[in-house]
TrEMBL record:
Role, per record: Catalyzes the 2-thiolation of uridine at the wobble position (U34) of mitochondrial tRNA(Lys), tRNA(Glu) and tRNA(Gln). Required for the formation of 5-taurinomethyl-2-thiouridine (tm5s2U) of mitochondrial tRNA(Lys), tRNA(Glu), and tRNA(Gln) at the wobble position. ATP is required to activate the C2 atom of the wobble base.
Protein name stated in the entry: tRNA-5-taurinomethyluridine 2-sulfurtransferase
Family: Belongs to the MnmA/TRMU family.
Annotated segments matching region Disordered: 406-444
Organism: Cafeteria roenbergensis
Source domain of life: Eukaryota
Organism phylogeny: Eukaryota, Sar, Stramenopiles, Bigyra, Opalozoa
Keywords linked to the UniProt accession: ATP-binding, Disulfide bond, Nucleotide-binding, RNA-binding, Transferase, tRNA processing, tRNA-binding
EC code(s) of this entry: 2.8.1.14
């Protein structure tokens, strides 16, 4: 089977997927000046202690990114208490602590774009933006100007390779934990990534174009790889996918090989004052408030109607379309059943809703990624004259509807949907259709206009494969909680000749929203860990299962229950793994259910 498939698909050799990094890890460069971001929590405290143990000259820095008093004069971020905790940690470790404010940078690069995204009907991720622009942007640059050799934080992610790889490990002998293989959910996705049948399906869906398996090059002196953390429940590599690759050369993540429990054990063993301090959660500038109570302080919400997406009838009123996001439960007064947001139009305030969490209109497999593809110059030059797949034929990446009042189009096969949904017409469908060409005038470009933020070196074979019009298998995360999902990445050409990146997941994903961040991964890390290839925002989702004619398909609460999922809201994707209420990963496939309804993923 594999031999036959190889004739149609390219399988680059996987040599160097694992590397002998043990010597490099143990041969730490001693005596570096390392600035450590100390937030006052247990993670950054242990990170600072680990770096100090390795013989480095450590300077702690407490960052102020947000004015802690809101309009009502109430503290949103407990920064004064955090500063006191950070000072206690610095005193305990015998290191200096510097306080530095980055409020202007945070406001301009994180908060204002956050507000703009909601005003435009998108769903932003301020944590990804903060890491890119502030923690590993303004803060990192400031540290380097102060004479730092490296900058360390308490993020849970791995870094392998680079010029020297200092500060890479946690402490030995007290709970450091590096798994020999990916976690259950990621291991299932990895098998799907390289499964010949899955690759064959991707080839067929593309009309016979070849599909390649391209692992990451071996991390080494010329390539510092961002990988999953050892702790699958705390992994933060998704939030770091927007960090610029050159910055990673001078970044250390000492907790990448540790699990959360080991970090707390280490803190207690060292007598750190943060050993039992509770973790901070949520977005700092929102605090414990709901988005519904926070946004109206800065935006004028567009009130309007809840409209049933199947009947087109108004079922209730709401205070503002900007206060909702795709997939969330919508409280509609007098409704006989729970309703879920399908889409919203911030121009007229319409919020389209469906009547079940697992409605097929909420599931889509095709994604158009925002911005320029960002290929290296040589690959970009190759792509200029290559036979690239038209974006409209990439397996249903975009709806065919254009203009207000148009009926949402069918998928790649061209068949009309059995039951068109009004939610995909009007402004939202027109905006998605325009995505095939240039951005509308005046629209904001993601990632400072640089498009996809690649973290792989320019000699990664996948760049040449994409430039030649071939698909490249990838693993994707559309939020931090979901296991990685297998799919195929394509470089395609829009209607105006512009090249774009499109991603087709093997199985549909629930509640994809423009503005969300898609982080891509490929195998290649030590011990089988996944390497983050980079990321960008999602510009548009392709046709839903309902638009493709699978109106009767449901993922099924019975199937979810058999998989041990007591709270379906936590299972955000139709694929190999779903997260249970207990935090474990269970295997569940929807393939048979789809095929029984005459639709194949």
């Amino acid at each position: 089977m594999r031999a036959a498939l190889a004739a149609r698909c390219r399988f680059p050799p996987r040599a160097g997927v694992t590397t002998a990094l043990g010597a490099a890890r143990s041969a730490h460069v001693r005596g570096l000046k390392v600035f450590v971001g100390i937030s006052g929590g247990v993670d950054s405290s242990v990170a600072a202690a680990v770096v100090k143990d390795q013989g480095h000259d450590v300077v702690g820095v407490f960052m102020r990114n947000w004015d802690s008093a809101d309009e009502a004069g109430q503290a949103v971020c407990p920064q004064d208490a955090d500063l006191e905790s950070a000072q206690a940690v610095a005193q305990h470790l015998g290191i200096p602590l510097v306080e530095r404010g980055f409020e202007p940078e945070y406001w301009a690069s994180v908060f204002e774009p956050f507000l703009s995204a909601y005003a435009e009907g998108r769903t932003p991720n301020p944590d990804v933006a903060c890491n890119r622009h502030v923690k590993f942007g303004a803060f990192h640059d400031w540290c380097m100007r102060q004479g730092a050799d490296m900058v360390a934080t308490g993020h849970y992610a791995g870094l392998e390779g680079g010029p020297s790889a200092p500060c890479a490990d946690g402490p030995s002998g007290r709970g450091a934990s590096v798994p020999a293989a990916p976690t259950d959910g990621d291991a299932l996705a990895l098998r799907a990534w390289e499964d010949p049948a899955s690759v064959e399906a991707a080839v067929a869906a593309s009309g016979g174009r070849a599909v390649s398996l391209c692992p990451a090059p071996a991390p080494g002196p010329g390539f510092r790889a961002l990988t999953h953390a050892a702790d699958p429940l705390k992994d933060q590599s998704y939030f770091l996918c927007g960090v610029r690759a050159p910055v990673l050369e001078t970044v250390a993540l000492p907790l990448g090989a540790m699990c959360k429990g080991a970090v707390r054990t280490e803190a207690a063993a060292r007598g750190l004052p943060t050993a039992s301090r509770r973790d901070s959660t949520g977005i700092c500038f929102i605090g414990k408030r709901s988005m519904r109570s926070f946004l109206p302080q800065y935006l004028q919400p567009t009130a309007g109607a809840f409209v049933d997406a199947e009947t087109g009838r108004e079922v209730g009123r709401h205070p503002g379309a900007e206060l909702f996001t795709v997939g969330q439960s919508a409280r509609v007064s007098g409704a006989s059943s729970r309703l879920y947001v399908l889409s919203r139009d911030v121009a007229d305030g319409t919020v389209w809703v469906v009547r079940s969490w697992d409605h097929p209109a909420l599931f889509a497999a095709g994604l158009l990624l925002a911005g320029e593809p960002g290929l290296p110059p040589e690959a970009a030059a190759m792509a200029a004259d290559a036979d690239l797949m038209p974006v409209e034929q990439i397996g249903g990446i975009l709806p065919r509807a254009t203009g207000a009042g148009a009926t949402a189009g069918a998928g790649a096969g061209g068949a009309a949907p059995e039951q068109p949904l009004p939610a995909r017409v009007g402004a939202e469908a027109a905006r998605a259709s325009r995505s095939a060409g240039a951005h509308p005038a005046g629209s904001a470009a993601p990632w400072d206009g640089r498009g996809f933020n690649w973290l792989l070196p320019s000699d990664w074979p996948g760049f040449a494969e994409l430039a030649a019009g071939r698909g490249v298998r990838a693993l994707a995360k559309l939020n931090n909680r979901m296991p990685a999902a297998a799919g195929t990445l394509w470089l395609c050409r829009g209607s105006h000749g512009r090249t774009r990146l499109g991603l087709r997941l093997d199985l549909p994903h629930r509640a994809v929203s423009a503005g969300q961040v898609a982080a891509l991964y490929v195998p290649g890390g030590a011990g089988g860990r996944l390497v983050c290839a980079g990321g960008t925002e999602i510009e548009a989702a392709g046709p839903s299962l309902a638009e493709l004619g699978a109106v009767g398909v449901r993922p099924g609460r019975e199937e979810l229950s058999k998989a041990g999922v007591s709270r379906p809201e936590l299972g955000t994707t139709w694929q190999a793994g779903v997260e249970t209420g207990a935090g474990t990963l269970a295997r569940w496939s929807v393939s048979e259910s789809l095929e029984s309804h005459g639709w194949t993923a």
